[in-house]
Amino acid sequence: MINNLELIKNQANWCLGCKSRPCSNACPMKTSIPEFIEKIKENKIEEAYNLLIENNIFSHVCSLVCPQENQCQGSCVRGIKSTPTQIGELEKFVNEWVVQNDIKPVVSQKQIKKNVKVAIVGGGPAGLACSYELVKNGVKSVVFEKEQVLGGILSYGIPDFRLDKKIIDRIINILKELGVEFRLGQELGKNISIKQLKEEYDYVFIGIGAELSSRYKLANERLDSIYDSDEFLRAYNFKNFIKNLGKVVVIGGGNVAMDSARSAVRMGAEKVSILYRRDRSHMPAREIELKETLNDGVEWVELTRVNNANVKDGKMVSVHCNKTQIIDGKAIDIEGEEFDYDADTVVFAIGLKPNQELLQSEGLELTEWGTILVDSNNQTSIENVYSGGDVTENKSVVCKALASGKKAAKSILNKIIEP
């Protein structure tokens, strides 16, 4: 983190202010990158912040968890022959400066459009981004969240060593001050339904995320020491630490696998290893996340497929593995290359998927991948019902979930203003 203002201004001066704006075009939220950096050059940090927040209330979050190297920074013209402008660091500095100086955001808000209400199901990134875009434009929105905590994956899925929960609290408070209403303990398919919501609200947005963990069978008997990443990270984030983890094996190669492994370290595991069937060059995790994971003492074991658990006296003692090789991008087992790896606990971090049964019961049409089918405006197969985030896109990331929520809100606004 660059924390010296002069160093920050020097970094800002590295930006060429390209008129073609490749960095902004590569950003899912279409952040006004050259413009906010120009404000830094002029020493107008508060103005830079308001530029960022007007477009994206999750600007601070994005500066911390976005894969900038594959998006804005990855498209920086400077990066072709030299080092790209450190856009993520600049955005992070602006947001942290505002917090340190207790600066309140200035959000332009249009007059409330009476008799138009939107129900938003899901208080995660997509739903909250949708509510922000609507409330800025004077449309009343009510967010229904099944948990007792708002923020979705930002609150229970991303650990505090990567994302301070005070940042989420700040965002929620801004939304409340703007007029967004929140109703907790409201779950789709249990105490609310799309049909009921349509009777009271003009539009509905579904942003419940991918709720079900992907895993496979490791043993014939039931083992209490096998977790999916969702429950494992919830245990860490809500301070319900799992005791006596022993030797932990995390299966997967994405950012969630890294978070799970680092959380296991902090929960007191004896040893933590990540076993991944592909190699480092094929992993979906950010390189910086793997480096920080390794710095925490986690062992990285690539080209290794976990097949099953070895059990003794009702407890896992190891996992049986197969070495793999990459052929045409696929992990293929190498015949005869099998071995056992010590493990007392296993965490599956191989992805989440939508609850297809729930979605179909609500009358939503799904894609062949089990996600909600939406058109180019993010409208579902049900009139005036929109959707976004992980429930519409496999393996989405936070910034893309935010963008889909914002896009759906704009589609709703376009319908409202049409004669």
Task: Characterize the structure shown.
The relative contact order is 0.13. Strand 1 (117-121), helix 7 and strand 2 (140-145) form a beta-alpha-beta unit. The longest helix has 20 residues, at 398-417. The chain has 15 helices and 15 strands. The strands form 4 sheets. The chain has a 5-stranded parallel beta sheet, with helices on both faces. Helix content is 35%, strand content 19%. By secondary structure, it is an alpha/beta fold. Helix 5 (59-65) packs across helix 6, helix 7 packs parallel to helix 15 (398-417) and helix 11 packs across helix 12 (255-266). It starts with a helix and ends with a helix. It has 3 domains: 5-100, Orthogonal Bundle (Fumarate Reductase Iron-sulfur Protein, Chain B, domain 2), CATH 1.10.1060.10; 117-211 and 354-417, FAD/NAD(P)-binding domain, CATH 3.50.50.60; 213-348, 3-Layer(bba) Sandwich (FAD/NAD(P)-binding domain).
As for the number of domains, it is 3
Summarize the amount of helix as a percent range.
Answer: 25-40%
The coarse silhouette is globular
Question: Quick one: how many beta strands?
Answer: 15
- Round the Cα radius of gyration to an integer and report it: 23 Å
The CATH topology label of the largest domain is FAD/NAD(P)-binding domain
Helix and strand element order? HHHHHHEHEHHEHEEEHEHEHEEEEEEHEH
Separate helix tally: 15
End-to-end separation: 49 Å
Assembly type:
single chain
As laid out across the biggest beta sheet, the strand order is: 3-2-1-4-15
CATH homologous superfamily placement of the largest domain:
FAD/NAD(P)-binding domain
Any guess at the CATH architecture of the largest domain?
A: 3-Layer(bba) Sandwich
Structural class assignment: alpha/beta
What is the level 1 CATH name of the largest domain? Alpha Beta
Mean pLDDT: 95
- Beta-strand residue percentage: 15-25%
How would a textbook summarize the main sheet?
5 strands, parallel
